[in-house]
Amino acid sequence: MEKSKGKASNEDIADGEVAGINNGGSIEECEPQSKRVKLEADKGNIADLTLNHSYTTPLFTEQLKTQWSSRDKEDYYDPATAAKVYRDPFQVCLLPDLLQNKITCRELVDEMVQKVQWSRKQMDLYEFYQSTDLSNMANCKLLTSFLQMLRRTVRPWLQALTGIKLDYVSASCSMYTCGDYLLVHDDLLKDRQIAFIYYLSPWENAEQWCEEQGGCLELFSSDERCFPLFPVKQKVSPKNNQFVFFKVGSRSFHQVGEVTTFDYPRLTINGWFHGASNNELIADVMRPFGKLEFTMPEKNTHAVSVDEFLNEVYLKAQTKKSIQKRIEDNSEICLYEFLRREIFEQALEQLLHDDTLKWRLEGPANAHNYEVLDISTASETISRLIALFSNAEMFALLRDYTDLDLAGPNAANPTYNLQVQRWTHGNYTVLGDGAICEENTLDLLYYLNASEGAAVVTYLSPEADEAHQKNHNDESDDDSIGYEMEQEEDDSVLLTITPVDNALNIVYRCEGTTKFTKYVSRNTPLERGPVYVISCSYKE
Ligand SMILES: O=C(O)CCC(=O)C(=O)O
Ligand SMILES: [Fe+2]
Fold it and tell me: Under 8 Å CB-to-CB from 457, ≥6 apart: which residues?
């Protein structure tokens, strides 16, 4: 595959920390906490960013502080304010009615709609709209003042509450429309100490979202190696004027569930309170994702032959030559109607209706979420198809297609990996160690019951992953990330596979290339059932 320039990040979703450092210095520390931020809004009204008085009383602060540091396993609920602290799977604090004056929520949303410049964020991990950092929004007076309020009032308050030193704030606006999501992640990057989300939904009868509308903040527990576990443990629905925060750590796994309503966008002002570096924590929880296991080809004992299964056109010497030329030039090819029609139809029938096939969910949730066939339960056409793709004869055919040493006297130790995958709504894989190929690899992707938008595989250049790693580990601040990512995302995409029934996609990928299968949104039509993929990789 051609290398293209570019990089991408699936981690640093929004960091305007440079601006935050510059503006969040000592002057603000000296300002009285009780200062009320008021300003002239465009309409000539006075916008009021005063915090709910109940939250700033010494009594409440003391109570919440006790609860925050308590080892109590029970959730905490304060009837006076309706504030909550969830303990499980990790501690999260919910403060409803953050601003004293709810009119301000409408004004904030007006400004978001009228003045904020949104950019579409699309990668393995997410799809939503994001603004630049609030510190960079000179024309958005109210949002700028909101940031000031976070810096001057909330930061010292949170610092006192949690006992964590908080130096500065970074924040941006996010908008999730129907079908948008942010998959499992921990926020653990650089010096993020406390993550916060302020929810805005000031519309009549929509102030509190119900679960059917999607868009919940969803929390995961984790195993002893700090891998997140299915299923979701706790959900927080969007609620107008609610402020939510949690301590960022090696177990703070969360996601934004897909928004399923077309009625309203999910709007938030969200970001982090920054302090000490997380480097030690990050080093402690290096979590390499499992790698695929490769095995030797099966000997020709299963009485499956390519002659019997394949569309005969793909066995002709002339076709093989053209395929080889195309792969040499483009590193990929799609062979339509690859198997004989009746074989394809029998296989599909069995995949859809054979209850003896056993499927298991592939985790961990921060790496992938899709089902894999337990190959020992395969029978009839499916087991013969598996045999076909694992067979020495297939290795020889692929040698003819690619000129790779997968068979013949020069083939030292050819190996393969095979998975039969089942894809439905909510399934995905994300970039990570397991997805990077360490050696040149030949990938085959064969689709059954294909449907537009489901099980779409994207291949990315090695630079994409380097950038990903960099953003994970590098201490240096890079405030350009928020603005340039769009371009970088596009540049790093080498190839996107469009699923087509009975089509075999062959992709030769170089060392370092990485890939992911895009999240299948609920908007993807799957009336005919899930999409099946026979996914194989071969190495010389
Ligand atoms: O919007 C939310 O509820 C969470 C957002 C989030 O996790 C993030 O932006 O990192
Ligand atoms: Fe997050």
Answer: 445, 496, 497, 505, 515, 516, 517, 518
Question: How much is the pLDDT for 281?
Answer: 87
Phi/psi for 158 (5° steps) reads -65, -35
For position 316, what pLDDT does the model report?
97
- Ligand 1 close to Cβ of residue 94 (< 6 A): no
Mutate to test the pocket of ligand 1, among 252, 256, 268, 366 (most ligand atoms within 8 A of CB): 256
Residue of minimum CA distance from atom 7 in ligand 1: 255
How many whole angstroms from 93 Cα to the centroid of ligand 2? 15
Give me the pLDDT at residue 46, please. 63
Ligand 1: centre distance to CA 505 (Å): 36
Q: CA-to-CA distance for 310 and 502, rounded, in angstroms? A: 11
Tell me the CATH architecture of domain 306-539.
Answer: Sandwich (2.60)
Report the share of the chain in percent with pLDDT over 70.
Answer: 84
Q: Which CATH number fits domain 37-284: 2.60.120.620, 1.10.1790.10, 1.10.3730.10, 2.130.10.10?
A: 2.60.120.620
DSSP 50-116: PBPHHHHSHHHHHHHHHHHH----S-EEETTTTEEEE-SSS-EEEESS-BS-THHHHHHHHHHHHT-
Asked if 37-284 and 306-539 have one fold, the answer is yes
The H or E element that residue 288 is part of is: none
Structural domain spans, the chain: 37-284, 306-539
- Report yes or no: 502 and 448 within 8 Å, Cβ to Cβ: yes
pLDDT of residue 464: 61
- 292 pLDDT band, cuts 50/70/90, is confident
Question: Which pair of structure tokens corresponds to residue 350?
Answer: 């069995």
pLDDT at residue 486 is higher than 60: no
For the CA of 244, the closest atom of ligand 1 is 3
For residue 534, pLDDT over 70 is answered with yes
Mutation probe of ligand 1 site: the residue of 193, 194, 197 with most atoms within 8 A of C-beta: 197
What is the pLDDT at residue 489? 54
Q: What is the pLDDT of residues 301-320, one digit of tens each?
A: 556 789 999 999 999 999 99
Kindly state the DSSP code that residue 153 receives in the 8-state scheme.
Answer: I
Confidence grade of residue 298 (pLDDT, cut at 50, 70, 90): confident
Q: What is the pLDDT of residue 140?
A: 96
Please tell me if the CB atom of residue 11 comes closer than 6 angstroms to any atom of ligand 1. Answer: no
Say whether pLDDT at 212 is over 80.
Answer: yes
- Rounded (10°) CA dihedral 182, 184, 188, 192: 40
| Mean pLDDT estimate for the chain | 86
How deeply is 73 buried, as exposed, middle or buried, from its count of CB atoms within 10 A (0-12, 13-18, 19+)? exposed
Q: Among 130, 216, 269, 270, which is best to mutate for testing ligand 1, by the most ligand atoms less than 8 A from CB?
A: 270
d(CA 374, CA 397): 26
Ligand 1 touching residue 217 (CB < 6 A): yes
**pLDDT of the residue at 286:** 66
Please name which of 52, 45, 19 lies closest in space to residue 153, comparing C-alpha atoms: 52
From residue 187, alpha-carbon distances to 11, 161, 479 in Å are 8, 21, 17
